[in-house]
Amino acid sequence: MAMLGSVLHLSPMMLTTSTSRPTKATTSSPIKPLKHCKTIEELKMFHRSLTKQGLDNEFSAITKLVARSCELGTRESLNFARKVFDLSEENGESYGSCFMYNSLIRGYASSGLRNEALLLFLQMMFCGVSPDKYTFPFVLNACTKTRASRNGIQVHGLIVKMDYAKDMFVQNSLVHFYAECGELDCARKVFDKMSERNVVSWTSMICGYARRDLAKDAVDLFFEMRSSEDVKPNSVTMVCVISACAKLEDLEMGERVYAFICSSGIEVNDLMISALVDMYMKCNANDTAKRLFDQYDGARNLDLCNAMASNYVRQGLTKEAIGVLNVMMDSGVRPDRISLLSAISSCSLERNVLWGKSCHGYVLRNGLENWDNICNSLIDMYMKCGRQDSAFRIFDGMSNKTVVTWNSIVAGYIENGEVDAAWETFKTMPERNIVSWNTIIGGLVQASMFEEAIEVFQSMQSQDGVKADGVTMMSIASACGYLGALDLAKWIYYYIEKSGIQLEVRLGTTLVDMFSRCGDPESAMSIFNSLKNRDVSAWTVAIGAMAMAGKAKQAIELFNEMIKQGLKPDGIVFVGVLTACSHGGLVQQGKEIFNSMEKLHGVVPEDVHYGCMVDLLGRAGLLKEALHLIKNMPLEPNDVIWNSLLAACRGQGNVEMAAYAAERIQVMAPERTGSYILLSNVYASAGRWNDVAKVRLSMKEKGLRKPPGTSLVEIQGRTHEFTSGDESHPEMPKIEAMLYEINHLGHVPDLGNVLMDVDEQEKIFMLSRHSEKLAMAFGLISSKKGTTIRIVKNLRVCSDCHSFAKLASKVYNREIILRDNNRFHFIIQGKCSCNDFW
DNA sequence: ATAGGGTTAG
C-alpha cells in the first residue's frame, strides 16, 4: 500500500523533533535560579556555584537542589540528585532529611526505577530517618506494577504500626496500590473504612474496578459517588467512568455519562475525548465517534488517532486503521508505539508481509524495538504471514519473553496448519494461560481433531490457575457439535452454567448449534429463546436447527418472527429457510420465499440459493422444473447445483437426467467423488451393472476412492467409531448376533444400495456391514432399554439402513436419532421425521 | 503528595 510507505519515509526532521531536547549549555550564560533550571547542565552549574560560595553543605540549598533534580525526572537528573544526596550524607553532620529521601523515592518510583525507590526506603529506615505521611504514597507507588505485591503489604503493615493509616492521602494510595495489584476486595476494604474521602479516593476505586473486568462495579460506584453530596467528580473521574462504559459496551450508559459531563461543567480535555471516541467505537457507534474525532480536529491528535486506529483493528477494518494513521502523519504527527501496534496488527490481519516489513523498518529506525508489545506484535505478524524465520529472529533477540510471545508462536503454527509444531511448543513453553489453552484447543477443532480437543480441555481442568472462559467453551461446543455427542453437550451446558461463564449471544448461538447437531432441537430452542440481543447469526442457527430436524413450518415461523423484529436477513438465513422448505416438502412456500429474496429483502440469490431451489423441486419430483431453473438462472450453474439435481434424480430413479447431470459435474469438478457414487447408485438401482462398472473404472483412472462410511455412537459418554466393513470391534460377535436377529424379524434388504454386481447373499452381507448398522447394533446391545440411540454418519444414510433403523425402533421400542452429512432422522416406532424422503 | 484514555496472543 502506497500510503503506508509514508510510514517508511518520514523525513529525518520529524524524527528528531519533540523527543530530544537541546542540551547544549553555553558557558557564558548566567546562573539561573533553581526553579528556572530545566536541564542537567544548568543544575550542575548551580551546584558548582554553591560549592564556590561554600554553601555546598548548606542544608536548605542542597535539599532544594535535590528536589529540583528529581522533578526533572530523567535518568541523568536522578543520578545527579543521588550524587548530591550521597555527598551530603558523607559530609556527615546531617543525615539526609526525610524530605530529601521523599524527593528521591518519588523520582525513582515515577520513572519506573521501582527497586531503587524501595532500596532507598530501606536505607532510610536503616539510618533511622522516620518516614512521614508524604513518604508512604511514594513508596506504595513504587510497589504497584511490580509482580511482588508482598512489598506493598509489608508497607501497609508499617503504615498501621506508625499510625498513618488514618491519613487520607495514605489511604488513597493504599486503595490505588491494592487495585493495581488486582486485589479489589482489599482496596474496597480500605476505601470503606475511610472516615473522609476526596475525589481521588473515589476515582482510585472507580478506576480500579474499570481496569479489571468489573466495569459494572465502577459504574455503580460512580452513581454512589454522585449521591454523596460532599464530593464532586472531576475530569479524571469521568475518564475512568467512560472507559468503564466502553468495557461494558453500554452505549446508553456512555451517552448518559457524556450528557452528565456536558451539564456539569467538568472540563473536557483531550484524554476525555479519547476515552469517548474509544467508548463509541467499542459500542460500534463508529459514526458518532468519527463526528467527535472531526469536531476535535482528531488528525492532529496522536491519542485520538490511536484510539480510532486500535478500534478499527479490533473491528477488522484494517484499511480504515491504516487510513487514520496516514492522515495523522500527513498532518505532521509522528506515530508512537501504540500507533505501531495498530499498524502491525493490521498487516497481520491482512497477511501482508510487505506492509509488515515497512512497519518493522519504522520500529528499528525509531528505537521502538525494545518494547515487548511491539516485538510480540511483529512475531505474530511474521508468523501469520508464514515468515517463521523472521519471527524467530525477533523471538531469539527478546530478553523478556512472556506468555504472549509464546502464544503468538503457537497461534502462528496453527495458522500455518502445523498442528504438531503448535502442540510441541504448547507443551514445552514455560508458562500457559487461558489464551494458550484456547489457542491449542481451537487449533485442534480447526484441524477436525475433535476428540483430541476435548481431551486437551479435560486435561486443562486439572491445571492450577486456568479457568475455561467463553472462548474455550465455544471451541469445545463446536467440537461436540461435530461429534454429535449429546451427553457431552449436556455436560458442556451444565459446566457453563455451573462455572458462571457469561452466556452472551455468540456462545449462546454456538450452544444452539451444538444441541441442534446433537439431535436435541428442544434444548437448542430453549437456549435460543433465552438469549438476549439475538443477532442474525443466532436466528440463522435456530432456523437451521429446525431445518435439520425436519420442522419446516417452525423454521419459516422463526424466519418471519426475525423479520418482524426488524432484523435484516442475509444470504445465509435464506439457505436455512430454503433448506427447511426442501426437507419439509413445502414447495409453494419455498418458491415464494425464493422470489421474495431480492424483491422484499434486497438479497440477490447466489448459487447456493439456486442449489436449494433445485433440491426443493427435485425432491418434490419436479425434475423438469428443476432443470428448467438451472438452464435459465442468471448465474453460471456450478457443480454444487448440478449435484443437487443428480441427488434428486437418484431419489426419483431418473437415469437419463442423472447421467446428464453427472457429466456436467465431471467436467467442472472431476474430483468430486460424491457425484460418481450418486451416479453408480442410480445405475445400480436400475440394475445397469455395466454402467456401474464404467463409473467405477473412470473413478479408478482418476485415482478417486469412495471415502469409507463411518458412524459414531455415544455410549455412556464415550464415543465409539465404526467403519463400513470393519469387524475389528471387540464386541463383534454380539453385534453380529444382533444384526442377524433384526434381519430375521422381517427386514427386506434393499439391494440397490450395493454398488457391486455380486450375488444376492454377498449383497446382503455387504449391506449388513454398513457402518451405521454396526453402530446401531452396538448401540442396541450396550445401552439401557428404552434409551435413545444416537448415531452420526459421515455420509448420506443408505435407504436399506434407513428401513433397518425404522424396524429396529419399533421392535425394540427405541428412539433412534441418525444424523448424516445432510440432516437428521428422528426415528420413533417405525416412523422417521424425514417421511422417507431425503 | 494520592487518581486518568489508547497496549500484543485465542
UniProtKB/TrEMBL annotation:
Listed name of the protein: DYW domain-containing protein
Give the organism the record lists.
Arabis alpina
Q: Which family does it belong to?
A: Belongs to the PPR family. PCMP-H subfamily.
Q: Which Pfam families match?
A: DYW_deaminase (PF14432), E_motif (PF20431), PPR (PF01535), PPR_2 (PF13041)
Q: Which UniProt keywords apply?
A: Repeat
Using the record's annotation, list all stretches that form the DYW domain.
Answer: 746-838
Q: Extract one GO BP annotation from the record.
A: RNA modification
Gene Ontology MF terms in the entry = mRNA binding; zinc ion binding
User: Which regions span the lipid bilayer?
Assistant: none
Q: Where are the PPR repeats?
A: 97-131, 167-201, 301-335, 402-436, 535-569
